Amino acid sequence: MKVNVVRDVLQRNTQIAEENQKIFRDYNIFVFNVMSSPGAGKTTFLVQTIERIKERFRVGVIEGDVASQIDAERIKATGVPVIQVNTGGACHLDASMVRKALSHLPLSELEVVIIENVGNLVCPAEWKLGEDLKVSLLSVPEGDDKPMKYPLMFTESDVLIINKIDLLPHFNFNMDQVEKVVKGFNPVIDIFKLSCTTLEGFDAWLKFLIPKIEEVRK
Ligand SMILES: Nc1nc2c(ncn2[C@@H]2O[C@H](COP(=O)(O)OP(=O)(O)O)[C@@H](O)[C@H]2O)c(=O)[nH]1
Ligand SMILES: [Mg+2]
């Protein structure tokens, strides 16, 4: 009855995620969960986003990783509170890990919580955390076939960031095809093409994000 056990675990996770969502609403905190394969640029994307919104909103971060404090240290350098969650092998964060991390964040002082999920293009897609927005990153060097090979991540996400567009001249990456395939799975997904290094395209992401945070603050 292995299949049923997996289903029950996911159902229990969804319950805890709904409770997390209630906590976020009680505190008027906007939450987004950033997912991608390792190295697509999640931490760099978080740092660049935080640097551009931290004067306007009070931000906290939950960093998910199998091991180490490396990413938490990078986030700490921006000056915002960060909690590192080490999953000890699990390939994704689940809602109860997020709940535990919340007890270490100063929720009454925050307006935004950003969650960096464990680097993996498969597992995190299935696990709700209670977030308002699921953001997936795909970077140019990973290849334009990834949405076709790992469709769930792209069907579950509200936003797709196509990162490292500064590297387009060096890779055979068919942008039109990626957009067409992803919109085919998920017609309502918002797609932003940007570089976290040159910051080309970054403003469009911020113009999308800031009103979403303000909406929850009302
Ligand atoms: N050229 C280029 N490199 C990037 C960009 N974004 C991130 N990187 C680099 O990609 C590597 C992995 O980034 P990181 O943020 O650690 O990815 P994560 O594992 O998804 O958190 C680092 O060497 C970053 O400097 C980008 O837009 N362009
Ligand atoms: Mg990272």
What would you say this structure looks like, in words?
Strands 3-2-4-1-5-6-7 form a 7-stranded parallel sheet, sandwiched between helices. The radius of gyration is 17 Å and the shape is globular. The longest helix is centred in the first third of the chain and has 25 residues, at 2-26. The protein has a single domain (2-217), classed as 3-Layer(aba) Sandwich (Rossmann fold), CATH 3.40.50.300. With 218 residues, it is of the alpha/beta class. The model has no long low-confidence stretch (mean pLDDT 96). Helix 1 (2-26) packs parallel to helix 4 (95-102). 41% of the residues lie in helices and 18% in strands. Helix 3 links the parallel strand 2 and strand 3. The chain contains 8 helices and 7 strands. The chain has helices at residues 2-26, 42-53, 70-76, 95-102, 146-149, 151-156, 175-185, 202-217; strands at 30-35, 59-65, 82-86, 112-116, 133-139, 159-163, 190-193. The site of magnesium ion has 4 residues, from helix 2.
What form results from the Cα inertia axes? globular
Weakly predicted, low-confidence segments: none
Number of helices: 8
Rg estimate, integer Å: 17 Å
- By CATH, the superfamily comes out as P-loop containing nucleotide triphosphate hydrolases
In N-to-C order, the SSE pattern is: HEHEHEHEEHHEHEH
Bound molecules: guanosine-5'-diphosphate, magnesium ion
Distance between the termini: 46 Å
CATH topology: Rossmann fold
Summed over residues and divided by their number, the pLDDT gives a mean of 96
The level of helicity is 40-55%
Write the layout of secondary structure elements.
Elements: H1 2-26, E1 30-35, H2 42-53, E2 59-65, H3 70-76, E3 82-86, H4 95-102, E4 112-116, E5 133-139, H5 146-149, H6 151-156, E6 159-163, H7 175-185, E7 190-193, H8 202-217
Parallel strand pairs: 1-4, 1-5, 2-3, 2-4, 5-6, 6-7
Helix pairs in contact: 1-4
The structure holds guanosine-5'-diphosphate and magnesium ion.
